[in-house]
């Protein structure tokens, strides 16, 4: 995953971008999540009222932990009910439990989380803490026309593989591979050049549909770290024989999209110029826009979309799903352990430009090197935040990058939330023998897990 040190860059907030107070940040996020989730209207409105009422009486440091808002040294003084903005805000540090997800610390003491409504309040704080370190997820103001451009089409039996770019933000184009049935090529809402033979095969295949308008499930296929091949590594090339999940899922009837990851191989966006505070958040946004692309396709069922990835792709899938409720199933292979367990907390992997602290990941994490326990969010909370959606974690016992024992601790914590939802079986962990790899047996198990999700 983390093979090349890079110099981190922490770009300033974009000029003219309006800063939000803690309450408005938390409310905005919660309303967005509830608007696209399956939470009932009654539960949703209860969550909103609980958040608003509780934050009004939280002191500034507690509000900051829950919302990711900066805290000034004088925040919380008499007569001040909002954190004061400063030119150099203090680093947000943890005040909520890392492992006990059903406990919430408030200004009046410890509070047990015993209902979905209370969990949604806790979850909103986790998500905002995540964004306080990674940078904010943009809103609709950053969306723009996808402006898809196809530069290559290859037919592989009854599957078409398109190499294309899509516009994730103004002037920012993401390279990606799209796999669709050949029979759906004539339905795609963008132009492409086909050879005479490809046109004939497309016509024949479309005719064989005989009016079948069945929409297919779709998967984001997120690639591991690869400075040479980038997203080509997951399309079934001989050089990466255990990583071809974009092609293999397409053969099982899925529409798959494999976007490139920032600052790997030939995808080199200028993160600072674009205003991104981390490569991870840029990748999340690119994936969100990739889902926009998938939902624009007539052959895709927008209610059946998921994400799968190995190593870098594994935690990229988790990060994206936490912020994107359209993702209904997640498979993460060799993609995570708790930050506090990463390489047993070795100092050299937490310096600027190393490990998680590289520019393409989350450079701000380097500021926690002296106290990893104070990182305000972690994978136990992020996996819990995916409940009640289906999540499969593949953690080989011989993985020398992410610790299998740490994954078990993460799953134990997250299951507290899954039990609250009465969906404990929706979280599963597999510990195959072997190293940091996505073996044939584990990919087969992952595909079957995904198939059972619909």
What report would you give on this structure?
Helix 2 crosses helix 4, helix 3 crosses helix 4 and helix 10 packs parallel to helix 11. Helices cover 32% and strands 17% of the residues. The strands form two sheets. The chain has a nine-stranded mixed sheet, sandwiched between helices. Strands 1-2 form a two-stranded antiparallel ribbon. Helix 10 links the parallel strand 9 and strand 10. The N terminus is likely disordered. The longest helix has 19 residues. It is built from twelve helices and eleven strands. It has 454 residues and is of the alpha/beta class.
Indicate the radius of gyration in whole angstroms: 22 Å
Order of the strands making up the biggest sheet: 3-4-5-7-6-8-9-10-11
Q: Which band does the percent of strand residues land in?
A: 15-25%
**What structural category arises from helix and sheet content?**
alpha/beta
The number of helical elements comes to 12
Unreliable runs, pLDDT <50, ≥5 residues?
3-22, 52-88
Question: Quick recap of the structure?
Answer:
The chain is an alpha/beta fold and 454 residues long.
């Amino acid at each position: 995953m983390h093979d090349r040190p890079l110099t981190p860059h922490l770009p300033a907030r974009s000029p003219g971008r309006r800063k939000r107070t803690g309450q408005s940040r938390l409310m905005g996020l919660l309303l967005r999540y509830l608007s696209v989730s399956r939470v009932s209207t009654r539960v949703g409105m209860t969550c909103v009222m609980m958040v608003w009422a509780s934050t009004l009486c939280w002191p500034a440091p507690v509000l900051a932990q829950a919302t990711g808002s900066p805290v000034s040294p004088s925040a919380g003084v008499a007569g001040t009910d909002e954190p004061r903005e400063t030119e150099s805000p203090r680093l947000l540090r943890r005040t909520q439990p890392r492992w006990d997800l059903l406990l919430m610390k408030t200004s009046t003491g410890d509070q047990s989380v015993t209902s979905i409504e209370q969990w949604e309040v806790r979850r909103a704080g986790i998500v905002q803490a995540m964004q306080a370190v990674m940078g904010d997820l943009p809103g609709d103001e950053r969306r723009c026309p996808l402006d898809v451009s196809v530069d290559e089409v290859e037919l592989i039996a009854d599957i078409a593989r398109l190499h294309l770019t899509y516009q994730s933000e103004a002037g920012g184009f993401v390279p990606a591979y799209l796999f669709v049935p050949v029979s759906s090529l004539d339905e795609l809402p963008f132009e492409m050049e086909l050879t005479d033979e490809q046109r004939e095969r497309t016509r024949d295949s479309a005719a064989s549909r005989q009016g079948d308008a069945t929409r297919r499930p779709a998967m984001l296929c997120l690639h591991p770290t690869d400075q040479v091949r980038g997203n080509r590594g997951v399309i079934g090339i001989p050089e990466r024989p255990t990583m071809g999940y974009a092609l293999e899922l397409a053969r099982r009837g899925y529409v798959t999209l494999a976007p490139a990851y920032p600052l790997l191989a030939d995808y080199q966006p200028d993160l600072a110029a674009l205003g991104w505070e981390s490569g991870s958040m840029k990748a999340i946004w690119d994936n969100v826009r990739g889902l926009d692309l998938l939902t624009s396709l007539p052959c895709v069922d927008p209610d059946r979309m998921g994400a799968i990835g190995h190593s870098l792709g594994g935690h990229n899938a988790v990060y994206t799903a936490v912020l994107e409720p359209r993702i209904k199933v997640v498979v993460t292979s060799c993609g995570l352990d708790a930050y506090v367990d990463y390489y047993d907390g070795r100092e050299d992997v937490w310096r600027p430009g190393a490990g998680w602290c590289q520019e393409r990941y989350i450079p701000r994490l380097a500021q926690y090197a002296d106290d990893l326990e104070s990182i305000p969010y972690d994978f136990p909370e992020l996996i819990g935040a995916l409940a009640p959606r289906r999540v499969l974690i593949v953690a080989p016992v011989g993985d020398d990058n992410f610790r299998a024992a740490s994954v078990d601790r993460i799953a134990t914590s997250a299951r507290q939330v899954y039990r609250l939802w009465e969906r404990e079986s929706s979280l599963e962990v597999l510990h195959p023998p072997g190293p940091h790899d996505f073996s044939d047996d584990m990919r087969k198990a992952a595909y079957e897990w995904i198939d059972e999700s619909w």
